[in-house]
Amino acid sequence: MTIDGDLYGPAAALYDQLHVGPASPLLVRFFADLTPEGGRALEFGPGTGRVTLAVAERAASVHCLEPSPSMRTVLLTKLAALPRLRERVTVLDGAAPEFRLDSVFDYVYLAAVLEHIPPPARRPFFAAVAAHLAPDGVLAMDMVDNEPVPDEPEREVRSVRQGECRYSRSTAVWPLGPDLAGVRHVYRTYLGEELVETETVERLHHFHRPPDVHADLAAVGLAPVPGPPAGPLADKGLLIARFPGAAPTPGFAQREEK
Ligand SMILES: C[S@@+](CC[C@H](N)C(=O)[O-])C[C@H]1O[C@@H](n2cnc3c(N)ncnc32)[C@H](O)[C@@H]1O
């Protein structure tokens, strides 16, 4: 079966098992450490909430804009089991680049989401973010890098067992241009040895190059904070941006001291 519409429909229930990789805790820590204690946070594309829940531990509030109904369902189900976060996390149907909220935020972030935003939509998106960002606020994202567009045949990336079923995700990536790839995820369900269901999702992956991103940030009055982290997160394309003259970045200095 091939899915139209909710691209994360087939992935949502097992997203944490089939899509989240071994570097995930470090990436979550990167985003969580930037959270201003007691501040107001805005997240684009929270998915199943792997970063949201860590940010919510420090923020006074987290507003989440998530276009996938399936991902919202998983996130809300997780939140239902965490009553102490009930007041703090707001989950809305929304998406970049266009959004309007009647609030200003101390921290705006997106993790593993930029691939869904076409480069021409990036500057309007940053303009909307800048209009919702407090003067000392922080914008953080990943997926800003110079990695070449991959060309990888389908292979099984991850699999997980649940009862007598085994669920797997296989992925293929192919170039469509200098900053664009096609991605196909095939989700298979096996009962014992028998293949009982196959769901396929095809979508685009947009690449965001540092000089273009920096130019779009500058156009809306934001500037990248120098000194991206080295080590295991070096290939994640992490970027922090702020208004020039803003107070020192929470968490960033802290991380450099580690
Ligand atoms: C790869 S998942 C990442 C989920 C989560 N941020 C994480 O790091 O685990 C991408 C998420 O972005 C959402 N998304 C897709 N297009 C979006 C857009 N234009 N604006 C906001 N979120 C979007 C998807 O529905 C999905 O939940």
UniProtKB/TrEMBL annotation:
UniProt-listed Gene3D superfamilies: Vaccinia Virus protein VP39
InterPro entries from the UniProt entry: Methyltransf_12, SAM-dependent_MTases_sf
GO process terms (BP): methylation
Domain Methyltransferase type positions: 42-139
Domain of life: Bacteria
GO molecular function terms noted in the UniProt entry: methyltransferase activity
Keywords: Methyltransferase, Transferase
Protein name: Class I SAM-dependent methyltransferase
Protein source organism: Actinomadura barringtoniae
